[in-house]
Every structure is written in structure tokens, then in C-alpha cells.
């Protein structure tokens, strides 16, 4: 199953007015397809209903914060907000998650390649153990949606569709990715950006896949910060 990371407004996401990486490539290869997304809701009234539902969800989420209610939940929810998409793939994302987990637990033997059942990995399970304060929490704790608001905690709640999800902060994720690089690769910005240019092969090592996913996520999380947009896993 493919894994894309979407940055944009949730209104645009749920209206389908965006392309994942495979759709964009298919459009670029075809001379006959019109430009732009092919799944979009074209009824403007329907799009406005989606936007209203998203704004209501955001308001409800803010009201549920209790003592953390001073945190600002404010980002661009316009239907024509810009969007950005990258595809780390599950193998890349999983490798990055495990790379972070083993950086936090260096005494455990790190696998050379991504295990098939990587979500049961012992280092990752330690990161998610009850009472554990992971330094890479917004990466290793099953977060699906990152908000462009500065908070350190993890939220467990519902998405716009009512599905249970874990919510994090894109600014905290940005900081934690920088900490991960500083603790392991110590790569400069130019070097790490170059990792995104070569998609790992099927037999690539855990580290090679992790570097690729790292570069993809760093670019997207900074787009989220620059344009004040949410960041979401799409699968």
C-alpha cells in the first residue's frame, strides 16, 4: 500500500482537490489528460459544506483541550490553499520511525533492513511504553495528522470523518527531525536535501530508506510551517 504525505487545507483534502504522487506522474505522462486533480468535488456548495464541517471539527478540537486551550488552532482552511505532496512510502516511513526508535535506544541491535512486522519492533515498543517520554514522540507514536501549532504533547481524538487518530504538531516534528539528524547523521541541509532525489530500491538498507523519508518529511514539514497548513498521512 502506498503512503503519501499531504500538506494543505483539510477542506481541499476532503474535497479531493489535490493529486497524490502517482496521480501527478500519470497526468504528466499523458498528453490528453487536462491539468489538475481528477477527483475534485466541483460543486462549490458541496465544497463549502466540507469547509464548514472542518471548521466545526477544529472548533470542537480546540474546546476539548482543557488546560491546553491557550494553544492556537489556526491555519489556512481555504479551498484554494496551496498543497504539497511527497511519497516516502510505508517502507521509507517505517524505516525512519525505526531509525528514530534505535537512536533513542542505542543499546538494542538495530536491523540492517526494515523488518516485515516493523510495528512490533522492540525499540519502537519501548518508545511507546506507558510512561515513556520519547524525544521523537511526534514521529514514533502513530501520529497521522500534524497541526501547524506549537505544542509538545500528543492528542488522541477523532478526525473530520469521526475516525480515531493521533494528532501531533508539525513544528515539534520539525524540531524532532532536526534532533534525530543531529544525534545520528549530522548531515548539512544541502546533503540531506539530496537524499530525496534517489528513490531507494527494493533491497535498500534501513538507513538508506530512512534518509529518503527524512528528506521528504523535512521538506513537507517546512512547507506546512511556511504556509500554515496541516500535514496528513494519506494511505
What integer is the average pLDDT? 92
Question: N-to-C SSE series?
Answer: EHHHEHHHEEEHHHE
What's the gyration radius in Å? 18 Å
Low-pLDDT segments = none
Helix proportion: 40-55%
**Strands side by side in the biggest sheet:** 2-1-6-3-5-4
What is the count of β-strands? 6
Strand content: 5-15%
Q: How many helix segments?
A: 9
- Quick one: overall form? globular
Euclidean distance between termini CA atoms: 7 Å
SS class: alpha+beta
Largest sheet: 6 strands, mixed
Structural overview:
It is a single chain. Helices cover 44% and strands 12% of the residues. With 235 residues, the chain is an alpha+beta fold. Strand 4 and strand 5 form a beta hairpin. Helix 4 packs across helix 9. The model has no long low-confidence stretch (mean pLDDT 92).
Layout of strands and helices, then pairs:
Blueprint: E1 4-8, H1 10-15, H2 21-29, H3 44-63, E2 84-86, H4 89-104, H5 122-127, H6 137-140, E3 143-147, E4 155-158, E5 164-169, H7 170-183, H8 189-194, H9 206-227, E6 230-234
Parallel strand pairs: 3-5
Antiparallel strand pairs: 1-2, 1-6, 3-6, 4-5
Helix pairs in contact: 4-9, 7-9
